[in-house]
Amino acid sequence: MTNNQSIACGTQQPRRKTIRLDNMNAHIKNVEYAVRGELAIKAEALRDQLNKTNSLPFKTIVNCNIGNPQQLQQKPITFFRQVASLCDNPDLLLPENRHIVSQLYPEDALHRAEVLLEHIGSVGAYSHSQGIPHIRENVAKFITERDGYAANPDNIYLTQGASAGVQSILSILVKDQSTGILIPTPQYPLYSATLSLLDATPVPYLLDESQDWSLNVTDLEKSVSTARANGTDVRALVIINPGNPTGQCLSEENMREIIEFCYTQQIVLLADEVYQTNIYEPEARPFHSFKKVLMSMDSVFHDLELVSFHSISKGMIGECGRRGGYFEAHAIDPEVMSQIYKIASVSLCPNVHGQILVDLMCQPPKQGDASFEKYNQEIDTIYSSLRRRSRKLEACFNSLEGVTCNPAFGAMYLFPQIRLPAKAIADADAHGKAADNFYCLEMLDATGVCVVPGSGFGQKEGTWHFRSTFLPAEDLFDDFCENLTNFHKQFMNKYRD
Ligand SMILES: Cc1ncc(COP(=O)(O)O)c(CN[C@@H]2CONC2=O)c1O
């Protein structure tokens, strides 16, 4: 029987797919990214269910799994959206429209959009692959003003969020499986996921929960010497400061030790500083950039290879969806810089909307500008609310039986340790789940709150954690904490030994 005949009478075998799980890129199958993993997928399914029935014990899903402020009703910064909307619709700037538009937009927003468009042309055009030179000059100016040491626009790349910058630099650094990259435990899984994709060797170093998640250089040295003894070519150290998921903020002294360590061990320092304005104890734990600390040290260290990352997704801005960020590549071999440029050019350019927001993040309204008061008031309102919510949720977690939680000195997360009854761990095992994952699934089913199990970030053997943002809107926060408290009591009673 011909194929057509077999199709006609419905007896044809299903056509074998060309691309299948068994023959696709195996490195992709090894990738894990818990921030949007099992819990987040189940939360979306429950959200769909809520839209159809009210059969669940809660009315909404609260996504505390991801640092996505505007998903949880945080308002965008007015000035930023004014300038962005004018850049998107330049006819608004035409003289014949000015008398109407100037009733809706402040003078400094109109002027900023005109200046940007002089350098951009159209937001619909490809830009320079490194990012628009004018914006890179503004980023360099921001870094120089922040640190007190010069930054070169040629060493700055605008990126599709910090994620794209991190993945680009790691792909340059990783030669083959023997390449080792030091990543913290716990870590933000962008790093472990990208190393899986590149088939590189993650070299974990433990953060000390008993010391506010501090980093001990002695532990770094042990990790490096063990890895190198096993034939791993350890080349780079990832530092997330302020920390995700742990919220720690490094002291200047600790940073100097880390810089000396990298310099003597011939290790490239990758400084993920996307939370540099999410600083909740600025007196006790201020933010210092690694670039500033490096340049403040003896000039012998100034040749250390350092790549620093920043993003528009965090801080008080939270423009995650616009995908904007940058990295500054310091003291990188010029021939390697050419390779970085080549790879950037393969993707043509980062999106221009994200670039505009990077410009606004780095050069916001200044004292005396028409929009300064409103801008400052919006930033302060968001900042003080984040700080209050951080402390409220920390206190809530520390009030729970068997739970301890370090304060968040920075970032947007808390990472409490949960001590679970043996029966709960046994039940988790029976369900084929890690104990913290099982606890988080039970929390989601009972409250609609979606968090991420500590196993998605890595944790010290024998400990269990979960990560939650403190982003739910402040007017819902007391209910949010009460729901978590009630769930925890029920869970602990259910599994009490
Ligand atoms: C430490 C760190 N670096 C980089 C990024 C990437 O940011 P971009 O949006 O600029 O690519 C994130 C995002 N934070 C993720 C997303 O939300 N919750 C998280 O843990 C992050 O937490």
Description of the structure:
With 497 residues, the chain is of the alpha/beta class. It folds into two domains: 26-73 and 379-495, Aspartate Aminotransferase, domain 1 (Alpha-Beta Complex), CATH 3.90.1150.10; 126-362, Aspartate Aminotransferase, domain 2 (3-Layer(aba) Sandwich). The chain is built from 18 helices and 14 strands. The strands form four sheets. It has a seven-stranded mixed sheet with strand order 2-8-7-6-5-3-4, with helices on both faces. α7 (133-147) packs parallel to α14, α15 (372-398) packs parallel to α18 and α16 (422-430) packs across α17. The longest helix has 27 residues, at 372-398. The chain is globular and about 70 Å long. The ligand Cc1ncc(COP(=O)(O)O)c(CN[C@@H]2CONC2=O)c1O is lined by residues 35, 66-68, 161-163, 188, 190, 240, 244, 272, 274, 311, 313, 320, 325.
Describe what is shown at a glance.
By secondary structure, this protein is an alpha/beta fold. 43% of the residues lie in helices and 12% in strands. It has two domains: 26-73 and 379-495, Aspartate Aminotransferase, domain 1 (Alpha-Beta Complex); 126-362, Type I PLP-dependent aspartate aminotransferase-like (Major domain) (Aspartate Aminotransferase, domain 2, 3-Layer(aba) Sandwich), CATH 3.40.640.10.
Keywords:
single chain; 497 residues; alpha/beta; Aspartate Aminotransferase, domain 1; Aspartate Aminotransferase, domain 2; 2 domains; 7-stranded mixed β-sheet; 3-stranded antiparallel β-sheet; 18 helices; 43% helix; binds the ligand Cc1ncc(COP(=O)(O)O)c(CN[C@@H]2CONC2=O)c1O
